[in-house]
Design goal:
This protein is of the alpha+beta class and 174 residues long. It has two domains: 30 residues; 121 residues, Phosphorylase Kinase, domain 1, CATH 3.30.200. The protein is built from four helices and seven strands. Strands 1-2-3-7-6-5-4 form a seven-stranded antiparallel beta sheet, with helices on both faces. A hairpin with a 5-residue loop joins strand 2 and strand 3. It starts with 12 loop residues before the first helix and ends with a helix. The model has no long low-confidence stretch (mean pLDDT 89).
């Protein structure tokens, strides 16, 4: 009579395949767990040279394009767009907060709907010699809007209010 074969000393091919499958499942589970609970850093937003676009856009614009002459240390422009009806400049502060400047030949309501969605009127603010309408939006966004000679200028951001106001006061048409 023959006894059942033991797999202790000389494993059968089935034992080897089962062992490999168990190991593969353990490795797959560890990899899946790591993927679920590991955050990948976002790719840094590349900086753009807004001054080059500004220099070429100013002669072509039929309104005075606003922009800061320079950005504070650590700040970077991340987006710039110009067409004959609008101007956009987006910047990140040294703390990673966003501030966006929009100038467009549209109504204040349309600009607020388009660039400061969900914001509500929150009074006015005097910055330099100009009065701006202030709007507060979701997620801590603060927006400054003014209309002059058919042009709406809107500055919005999630930076602290004083930082956004300092940015607004730095804007120049020259």
């Amino acid at each position: 009579m023959s006894s059942p074969r033991s797999s202790r000393g000389n494993p059968s091919m089935g034992d080897v395949i089962r062992s490999i499958a168990v190991l593969a499942l353990v490795i797959l589970a560890i990899w899946g767990f790591g993927r679920l609970f590991t955050q990948r850093p976002e790719a840094p937003t590349p900086a753009v040279d807004y001054t080059t676009t500004l220099k070429s856009a100013r002669p072509a614009a039929n309104f005075a394009l606003l922009a800061p002459p320079t950005l504070p240390a650590g700040w970077k422009a991340t987006s710039v767009r110009f067409n004959p009806q609008s101007w956009h400049l987006g910047v990140l502060t040294d703390k990673g907060d966003y501030i966006g400047l929009e100038q467009a030949k549209i109504s204040v309501d349309r600009a607020a709907d388009q660039f400061a969605e969900g914001s509500k009127s929150a009074g006015t603010a005097r910055i330099g010699s100009q009065t701006w309408n202030v709007r507060k939006g979701p997620r801590g966004y603060i927006t400054y809007v003014r209309r002059e000679a058919g042009l709406t200028t809107l500055v919005t951001g999630d930076a602290p209010r004083t930082t956004v106001e300092d940015y607004v006061s730095s804007l120049s048409a020259s």
